[in-house]
Amino acid sequence: MKPYLLIALPLAGAVVAAFWPSDRTRPWLLPVVGALHAALCIWMLICPPPLQHDAWLAFDPLARAVLPAVSLLFLVCAAYGVPYLRTRVERPNRVFVALLLTMLGLMSAGHQARHLGLLWIATEGVTLAAIPLLHFTGTPHAFEATWKYLLVGGTGIALSLLGSFCLGYASLHGGGNGDLTFTTLMQQGAGLSRPWVLTAWVLVLVGYGTKMGLAPMHTWKPDAYGEAPGIVGALLAGGVTTVAFTAILRVHAVVALAGDGAIADRTLLAIGLFSMLIAALFLLGTRDFKRMLAYSSVEHMGILAVGAGLGAAGVWAALFHVWANSLTKGALFLSAGTIRRAAGARTMDEVRGMSALTPYSAAIFVAGMFAVTACPPFGPFFSELSVIRAAFEAKHYWAAAMFLGCLLFVFFGITRVVFAIVDGRPHARNIETSRRYAETLGTILPPLVLLGISLWLGISTPSVLRTAWTEAVAQLFPTP
Amino acid sequence: MIVIVETIARLAGWLLLAPLLPGIINKVKAWVAGRRGPPVLQLYYDLGRLWQRGVVLSSLASPGFIAGPAVAWVAIVGAALLLPLGPAGALLSFRGDALLVIYLLALARFGTAWAAMETGSAFEGMGTAREVSYAVLAEAAIITAMLTLSVHAQSITLVEMLTPASGVGAVLLGAGLFTVLLVENCRVPFDDPNTHLELTMIHEAMILDHSGPPLAAILHGASVKLLLFVVLLTESVVPLGHFSGPVACAVLALGVLTVTVGVGLVESLLARLAFRRVPLLLTTAILLCLFALLVAWKGGAA
Amino acid sequence: MNSMVNLLIGLAMGLNLIALASSRLPALITAMAVQGMALGAMPLLLEHHFDWMVSLVAVCTIAGKGFVIPYLLRRAMRAANIERDMEPTIGYVPSLLLGAGGTIAVVAMARALPLLPEHAGSLMVPGALASVLTGFVLLIGRTKAISQVCGYLILENGIYLFGLLLIHVTPLFVEAGILLDLTVGVFVIGIIVDRIQRAFDTLDTRKLTTLHE
């Protein structure tokens, strides 16, 4: 019952938001529903409900290991959303609020889906729900970004559907009944038809990889993250990508049991390292701090893919990194949104000296930058350390070396942009806009909370999370 | 003795019937447009008149100016004689005669192009360039079509090859060959035989400077070529072998008439294509023949 | 019945080539719509006995892909006042050759693929792959938003055809959900096309290049 409640609650909230009469009070629905959802999620994290194996939607160990992170991120973003929408009074927010809640419901469905078709429907639903959010600002640039997101994302998601069908056909050809639930597929294991499993793996990796933003399918990401409001960017980078990542993990488990685990691991490693490399190179060139966050997201998706390709220990590290990345990246997106509004521009040529204009947000931005480039003692440092340890255990020394090299370049690239924006004396134009959009407690606290959680994750990872990740790994790598 | 009589009979048939086709096409066009149009036998009158006229020769032109049309005419008539006529078979049949037909048609084109280049006129050079560049694609299509027929019949002798497949393959091949027919004979939508504007001409531009009997030879050769393609199209789509002698002859004649009327209808209903769109249509023709080839191949394997 | 299915798929493959070769947007939209209808009717042929849910899905598919979506696209086309997709990134002859070469390649490849005996003689797998390929060529090779949308829909048609291999085992509501998602997706695309037209006063996606490094 509870898994359905996780989905139904936000969707019901969305319906209420759609009919709520007042534009001024409607945004409060976001934190209310977010808090209920997060409370339910954390309760289920601590006392997991019994798992029905044949259920299509269930709070299984994998969902338990990642969904609370998304829920927490949403709650904080929702809290930020209230003051954000107050600065945007000129635009009606009915669609915005309703679709944000729809996104939360569909993300919950995607994380809990144990049926390939259902998973696809949820992912496509999230993709479509995000579209009006992306062009909320209504500028031509926003439409351009939305068009690219729609076309690249739509094509990717279509390919993942083809991949899902291929997996079904693999089951059918291997003598199974073509059932698309992960439990059945994993039970059939080596009985699946190998060529079709491989085809399915490639298509699913490309399809959901597009959704995650792995290079070279990442091209929509800088545009979309650059143009979207900070809160939407945070949810896309921390929530939607996670749905795609769990989809890849689930299919990977099926592929491994079918006997093609080694090939799947190698492709994941290759595509992960390639994403990190591309991200590092572009980070050295970009001058726009919101696009910088997008490339940083590409880099972290690469880290997740590398982790997923390193066996059980790597997957454990990747699940850790999902938490660390989602929450830290959320802090960065939210503080960047505040800075962007106060500065009225986005590139380091037009923005300077924000430490004087928005001192708290700038401080959070700098701290978040250190966190996201894996400086101790924040969460990402420890999760990336686990990934490297897993790489050494699996004797992938070259991969580890490349991984570290990319991290170094990423550090150069990100610090270059961040300090250019924070340091120096502000432009006259920045000072002028910052009077209109000053930072308030409502826009400072949410990113600070996220940064605090990231710190807490790093210093003392709660044992309940460690067991949740271990159990998720056990679900994905069943011992015969 | 019989061979000689048969040769003469076939030759007479090809030579005398061929000028009828452009007349029929023009009649159809006139009928669709609601005009009375020129008489069906108009080309016969034209040929007769041209034959009586003298020849204007440029002082710059070499003997090739006269030899070109002659070579073309002989090559086309030779190719026509190789083509089997339903139950009557071919006058001369040997392994690989299909290839000879293709080569003879190419030789005819070479003859016309040669004669056109002899005058040194810019218009004729332009027409030749266009004609030859279309021919590159059209020949690829006709070679593919011949290959389709030979793969289907497992033979490279025309008599055996012209036992067409049924179903999708025949439809594809028919469509492809029809397009080839239109381009090879300079019909709409590739070329407009009635155009009076030199800049848009293709085939007509090539023969601007010809007069008298050489022009008659070119015009007559063109009509024989048209008849040849119409017969080839009919025989590669309609399974004539299934009928007895006289019925097959009637079916063949009916098929020829249908295709001719079809050409007339296409000319009345379609506008001429812009030059840069022509390669697309020719590629389509090649692909149609290619898919027919694939169907023949797959059918043969199954 | 199998030959009827193959005939429809052959028709769809021919429409792929027409879509690749046509520079006029109405022709492209019509090719896409006819293909959608041909494939939409397939479930009726594949089911051995009459089932009202299957018929409902088929009717919805035909109505959606054959009439609603083409109507929306034609309206967008008229609003933007464009008839042709000039200057494609991949020319018409090359894209036609690519499509034809791809079709031949997938027909040849489908023989090498391990298929169940009941699908071995059918054109379903090559037909699906050919449509996917055509969709990609259109997505990459055309510059107008409407042509790209048509490419996307042809790609979807291919995937739909592949999904029909699983028609006997996939629960119907999953298919219905997929269909719903697609329809909503296209509606959203239509709206965005409309907005792009208003914001940029063009549907030429080459103009959408203000965002770059």
List the helices and strands and how they pair.
The complex is a heterotrimer of chains A (480), B (302) and C (213).
Chain A lengths: L1 H18 L9 H18 L14 H27 L6 H19 L3 H19 L5 H34 L8 H7 L5 H19 L7 H8 L2 H56 L3 H20 L2 H33 L10 H4 L1 H14 L6 H15 L3 H26 L5 H9 L4 H19 L3 H14 L4
Helix pairs in contact in A: 1-2, 1-4, 2-3, 3-4, 3-10, 3-12, 3-18, 3-19, 4-5, 4-10, 5-6, 5-10, 6-8, 6-9, 7-10, 8-10, 9-11, 10-11, 10-12, 10-16, 11-12, 11-16, 12-14, 12-15, 12-18, 12-19, 14-16, 14-18, 15-18
Chain B lengths: L1 H16 L2 H14 L8 H11 L11 H19 L14 H22 L3 H32 L4 H4 L6 H17 L18 H4 L5 H26 L7 H25 L8 H24 L1
Chain C lengths: L1 H20 L3 H16 L1 H5 L5 H29 L11 H21 L4 H4 L3 H18 L3 H19 L8 H29 L13
Helix pairs in contact in C: 1-2, 1-5, 1-7, 2-4, 2-8, 4-9, 5-7, 7-8, 8-9
Structure description:
The model of chain A has no long low-confidence stretch (mean pLDDT 91). Helices cover 79% and strands 0% of the residues of chain A. Chain A is mainly α and 480 residues long. Chain A is globular, with a radius of gyration of 21 Å. In chain A, helix 3 packs antiparallel against helix 4 (94-112), helix 12 packs antiparallel against helix 18 and helix 15 packs parallel to helix 18 (441-459). Chain B has 302 residues and is mostly helical. Chain B has one domain. Chain B contains twelve helices and no strands. Chain B has helices at 2-17, 20-33, 42-52, 64-82, 97-118, 122-153, 158-161, 168-184, 203-206, 212-237, 245-269, 278-301. The longest helix of chain B has 32 residues, at 122-153. The model of chain B has no long low-confidence stretch (mean pLDDT 88). The mean pLDDT of chain C is 81. Chain C has helices at residues 2-21, 25-40, 42-46, 52-80, 92-112, 117-120, 124-141, 145-163, 172-200. Chain C has one domain (2-205). Helices cover 76% and strands 0% of the residues of chain C. In chain C, helix 1 (2-21) packs parallel to helix 7 (124-141) and helix 2 (25-40) packs parallel to helix 8. Chain C has nine helices and no strands. Chain C is an all-alpha fold and 213 residues long. Chains in contact: A-C, B-C. Chain A binds chain C through residues 115, 117-118, 120-121, 124-125, 128, 131, 135, 139-141, 143-148, 150-151, 154-155, 158, 161-162, 165-166, 168-169, 172-173, 177-180, 193, 195-196, 222-223, 226-227, 282, 285-286, 291, and chain C through 113-116, 132, 136, 139, 145, 148, 152, 155-156, 158-159, 162-163, 165-166, 168-171, 174, 177-178, 181, 184-185, 188-189, 192, 195-196, 199-200, 205, 208, 210-211, 213.
